[in-house]
Design brief:
The complex is a heterodimer of chains A (294) and B (348). The mean pLDDT of chain A is 87. In chain A, strand 1 and strand 2 form a beta hairpin. Chain A has 294 residues and is of the alpha/beta class. Helices cover 31% and strands 28% of the residues of chain A. In chain A, strands 6-7-8-3-9-10 form a six-stranded mixed beta sheet, with helices on both faces. A four-stranded antiparallel beta sheet of chain A has the order 2-1-4-5, covered by helices on one side. Chain A has a four-stranded antiparallel beta sheet with strand order 12-13-11-14. Chain B is elongated, with a radius of gyration of 24 Å. Chain B is of the alpha/beta class. The relative contact order of chain B is 0.13. Chain B has a five-stranded mixed beta sheet with strand order 2-1-3-4-5. Chain B has 13 helices and five strands. Classes of the chains: A alpha/beta (294), B alpha/beta (348). The interface between A and B is medium-sized, with 28 and 24 residues.
Chain lengths: 294, 348
């Protein structure tokens, strides 16, 4: 099957900075693909180059097997990380304005229901909350029935309830068969929404696959967590990969029972111990030695 | 090019303008307050230096060697002597309040012209007559210029309208587009099929429509209070103001083409608009100013707009009489539109 989007050796350089350093990946139709990485990893820059908002320094981008043409913008939807709206228009007027910019469009009523905008349709854009604004911008991105939807950090700055609400909408969109590419620094968001993930750091893709594949590949086993004061011997003597996080020692083990046995043999006090299944955060730590939010 | 997309952006911008109540109100209040204020303060035009026209002017100086003009008059403080080649040129300036008094410096008796109802002319005439006391005899002939005077407020009014157009066009396009670029609105629009040409056309048309709308409302409101006299055709005046509005809007597009700093853009707009305001004779005539200053004023569209508008409004000129100004405004519009479109950038 021809990938909907294929990226080859994409590079974006600024004067003294290589923001995107030769990334390659492809996206199959109908999936949600995530670019996961910490702030400054180059996710947004990569996305904006692919969206044709900023030019690439080098590399190739193929949409439906061909270089992008003028019609590309008719077929994609974009939700930027930071966008201001036209303050004095209402939510409905904003959608109508954007609807007029495209040839093939969705009925506004349908978008109102999908993105839960019905209650605020007459509100002016400068009077809506952060979560409502994100939903409006998502609706704007969907107005032209896009085949490919770009979401750049869609839930950044939202409270937990608004974030869950947005995730539900994105899932509904995905169920309608849309292909989605999103950037996030939230492993929870990536795990919840993405079928495939590319982990980015310093402008490069350092790992890729489905969330479960990545965890299986890089973090088999689990994580044993103990208060730092429980371990009286130097941490370097522990036979596990470990990290000190907020005065707690996180030890990655291939087998949790064997790991606990080893700690008992070393007479480590297990009071306050907890065990966590590995997630994408652990994958990132394993790959880079840093946390996603560092 | 899609008319539907242009119409969508045109509508969106207009809605923004009409709903931003503070800016909307200020667009009307500002010119009205200026007109009202100047009508009160300068209604009798009692400000500044008194200007005395002298003809025929002597090469290398205004007053001829051996002129019969009394020495005392020539050395009176606050009188500025401006030379004219002939009577017709001087009389035209007198009728337009560009000078207060006009003297022929040849022949005996001397002849002088003064507008009958001009208070400034009256004062200069008294000074002129007093300067003959030491000479022992008054040998000058007065020729009154009746019913030709144009009220200062009639002369000022096109200037205020033009100035309001200038500020509205430069800030309403230049400043607003830079703000949109800075806060990401332009970036969001770039992600749509909307082209730069369509966007700029919509912005220009929207501002042009709003300029004319404001012009009509301010004119009607001010006319109720001050009963402006329009010697020429309203249609000609509308065409001239339309061309002026287009040229000023196109100028705003040039400033909107680049830049993300509102502060910097504001500085540049001030740097351009203030000299334009003074050199285009919004408030006062440049009569008597150095030639290079008057020539330099020709680079500003507002100068040509006001020259044409005043000739139609004050002198009853027809469109053909101001065709030079109209073509200059049209040319400026085209040049600025091309420059604005060429340099326009959606991104930071």
């Amino acid at each position: 099957m021809t990938p909907l989007l294929e990226i080859r050796d994409l590079v974006k350089k600024y004067k003294n900075l290589v923001a995107v350093d030769g990334i390659s990946f492809h996206i199959r139709p109908g999936i949600c693909f995530g670019l996961l990485g910490p702030n400054g990893a180059g996710k947004t820059t990569a996305l904006e180059v692919i969206e044709d908002i900023i030019p690439a320094t080098s590399g190739e981008i193929f949409y439906k097997g061909k270089p992008r043409t003028a019609s590309f913008r008719e077929e994609i939807g974009i939700q930027f990380q930071h966008t201001s709206l036209l303050n004095f228009l209402t939510v409905r007027e904003t959608l109508a304005t954007f609807q007029a910019l495209y040839r093939d469009v969705v009925d506004i009523e349908e978008l109102m229901d999908l993105c839960h905008l019905r209650e605020i349709e007459k509100n002016r854009n400068d009077k809506v909350s952060g979560g409502q604004a994100q939903r409006l911008m998502l609706a704007m991105a969907l107005i032209n029935k896009p085949e490919l939807l770009f979401l750049d950090e869609p839930s950044t700055g939202l409270d937990p309830q608004a974030r869950r609400n947005l995730w539900q909408i994105v899932r509904t969109i995905k169920e309608k068969g849309k292909t989605i590419i999103l950037t996030t620094h939230s492993m929870e968001e990536a795990e919840y929404l993405c079928d495939e993930i590319a982990i980015m750091d310093h402008g490069r893709i350092i790992a890729g696959g489905s969330p479960s594949e990545l965890v299986q590949r890089y973090c088999p086993g689990g994580t044993i967590i103990l208060p730092r004061e429980n371990i009286t011997t130097p941490l370097e003597e522990l036979p596990f990969v470990h990290h000190l996080v907020h005065n707690r020692v996180e030890m990655q083990v291939d087998n949790v029972n064997e790991g606990i046995g080893e700690l008992q043999r070393r007479t480590v006090d297990l009071t306050g111990m907890s065990v966590r299944s590995p997630d994408l955060e652990d994958v990132f730590i394993t790959l880079t030695g840093r946390q996603l939010r560092d | 090019m899609s008319v539907k997309r242009i119409w969508a952006m045109f509508n969106a911008r207009n809605k923004e303008f009409f709903r931003d109540r503070a800016a909307f109100g200020w667009n009307f209040l500002f010119p009205f307050l200026i007109i009202a204020g100047f009508a009160i303060v300068f209604g009798d035009r009692n400000h500044g230096q008194y200007k005395v026209g002298v003809f025929p002017a002597q090469e290398g100086g205004v007053v001829a060697i051996g002129s019969a003009l009394p020495e005392k008059f020539l050395h009176t403080d606050h009188l500025q002597f401006i030379g004219f080649a002939d009577l017709d040129t001087g009389l035209e300036k007198l009728r337009h309040h560009k000078i207060d008094f006009l003297i022929r410096q040849e022949g005996v008796p001397l002849q002088y012209w003064v507008a009958e109802s001009s208070p400034r002319g009256y004062i200069v005439e008294r000074l002129f007559q007093a300067s003959f006391l030491e000479e022992g005899a008054f040998f000058a002939e007065k020729i009154a210029v009746p019913d030709l005077e144009i009220r200062y407020i009639d002369w000022l009014f096109p200037g205020i309208l033009g100035m309001n157009m200038m500020f509205s066009a430069l800030w309403g396009v230049g400043y607003v587009v830079v703000r949109y670029r800075k806060n990401g609105v332009l970036k969001r629009l770039k992600a749509t099929p909307l082209t730069a040409f369509e966007y700029l056309t919509a912005q220009a048309l929207s501002r042009f429509f709003l300029l004319l709308f404001t012009l009509v409302v301010v004119w009607a409101g001010s006319d109720l209070l001050f009963s402006f006299q329009v010697a020429g055709s309203y249609l000609d005046l509308a065409i001239v103001f339309s061309l002026g509005g287009l040229s000023l809007t196109a100028m705003g597009l040039v400033f909107a083409a680049r830049g993300i700093s509102e502060e910097f853009t504001s500085g540049v707009l001030n740097f351009i608009s203030w000299p334009m305001m003074f050199l285009s004779e919004v408030w006062f005539s440049l009569e008597g100013a150095p030639d290079w200053v008057r020539s330099f004023a020709g680079v500003f569209p507002l100068t040509h707009l006001l020259r044409a508008a005043r000739r139609i409004m004050n002198d009853g000129a027809v469109l053909a009489d101001v065709s030079y100004e109209c073509f200059v405004l049209l040319g400026i519009t085209l040049v600025f539109l091309v420059l604005g479109a060429f340099f326009f950038s959606w991104n930071k």
